[in-house]
């Protein structure tokens, strides 16, 4: 990862010096995906430069991008440096730039297309001859762990005065279901699928971007998409629209009986994970929780309202 406090423009230019791109003609903010990334315009083409995850994750992304693209699921290529490295000396990765838009308020047709693509994407990922070992020390792995969500998160909420009947209800729902969730088959999944990570051309999906690897169930990944499309980004969460997305996924990759019964608990887990993230970041950094905490708490309450009738 780039060093904290480094000048972003200078760091980007230092990273780009390791590639043979010809004349650099532009460095712009991205219209979608990574906030820290930049669109690179150069004589050799158009690319995305962004801070790299750990090297093992970049190597995995480079491998699966070709495998998925060969199956008709377009992925951005990871571009090697002139020396053949996938990550620059100062911690950046360069990717092929894929054209498309990321509508933050997708239409019903765009949402249905995105949900079908999420299902097809994970069906294809499940066929790949790859395994993935997450970093056990990663904060992002920790906050996705149901054990953390039912033991550590309640204490943090209580200490911050944020515990409520809704948070207790959500934690109880997850606690009852976590054995069944853990029994679902695991595979490589994309763990951060929201509207800003789904590139579209009209009502057609171009690609999912910002691949964020987890070794978990397909339901975990699907509930991430359901959370962002139907809970966090929705002005008024609507159970009918959420169920339509479940049906769209099922048409592309049929749900197992266990997955069908566990989607409410999976959605609650996702809402708890998203709430736990700023709290754990604040704890590690010794700071107050960030401004995203309030909207994430509201989203958890909305998820409880959507899921409660299906959890009793």
Total count of strands: 9
Strand numbers in spatial order across the main sheet: 1-2-3-5-4
Helix-strand topology string = HEEEHEEHHHHEEEEHHHH
| Corresponding CATH superfamily of the largest domain | Aminoglycoside phosphotransferase (APH), C-terminal lobe
CATH topology group of the largest domain: Aminoglycoside 3'-phosphotransferase, Chain: A, domain 2
**Top-tier CATH class of the largest domain:** Alpha Beta
Helicity level, as a percent range? 40-55%
Radius of gyration, whole Å: 20 Å
**Class per helix and strand makeup:** alpha+beta
Tell me the distance between the termini.
45 Å
Unreliable segments of 5+ consecutive residues: none
Biggest sheet, open or closed, and with what strands and sense? 5 strands, antiparallel
Number of domains: 2
Strand content range: 5-15%
Shape: globular
Named CATH architecture of the largest domain: Alpha-Beta Complex
User: What's the mean pLDDT score?
Assistant: 93
Number of helices: 10
């Amino acid at each position: 990862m780039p060093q904290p406090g480094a000048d972003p423009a200078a760091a980007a230019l230092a990273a780009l010096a390791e590639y043979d791109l010809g004349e650099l003609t532009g460095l712009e903010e991205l219209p979608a995906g990574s906030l820290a990334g930049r669109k690179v315009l150069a004589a050799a083409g158009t690319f995305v430069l962004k801070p790299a995850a750990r090297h093992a994750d970049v190597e995995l992304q480079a491998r699966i991008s070709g495998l998925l693209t060969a199956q008709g699921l377009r992925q951005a290529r990871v571009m090697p440096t002139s020396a053949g490295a996938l990550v620059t000396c100062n911690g950046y990765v360069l990717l092929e730039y894929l054209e498309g838009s990321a509508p933050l308020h997708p239409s019903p047709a765009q949402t249905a297309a995105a949900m079908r693509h999420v299902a097809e994407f994970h069906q294809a990922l499940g066929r790949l001859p790859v395994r993935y070992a997450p970093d056990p020390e990663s904060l992002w792995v920790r906050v996705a762990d149901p054990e953390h969500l039912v033991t550590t998160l309640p204490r943090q909420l209580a200490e911050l005065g944020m515990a409520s009947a809704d948070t207790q209800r959500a934690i109880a729902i997850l606690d009852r279901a976590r054995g069944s969730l853990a029994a679902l088959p695991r595979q490589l999944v994309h763990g951060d699928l929201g509207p800003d990570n789904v590139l579209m051309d009209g009502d057609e999906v171009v690609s999912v971007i910002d691949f964020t690897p987890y070794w978990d169930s397909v339901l975990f990944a699907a509930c991430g998409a359901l959370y962002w499309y139907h809970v966090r980004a929705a002005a008024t969460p609507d159970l009918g629209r959420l169920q339509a997305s479940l049906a769209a996924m099922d048409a592309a990759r049929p749900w197992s009986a266990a997955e069908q019964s566990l989607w409410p608990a999976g959605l609650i887990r996702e809402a708890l994970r998203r709430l736990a993230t700023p709290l754990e970041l604040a704890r590690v950094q010794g700071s107050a929780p960030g401004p995203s905490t309030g909207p994430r708490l509201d989203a958890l309450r909305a998820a409880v309202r959507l899921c409660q009738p299906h959890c009793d």
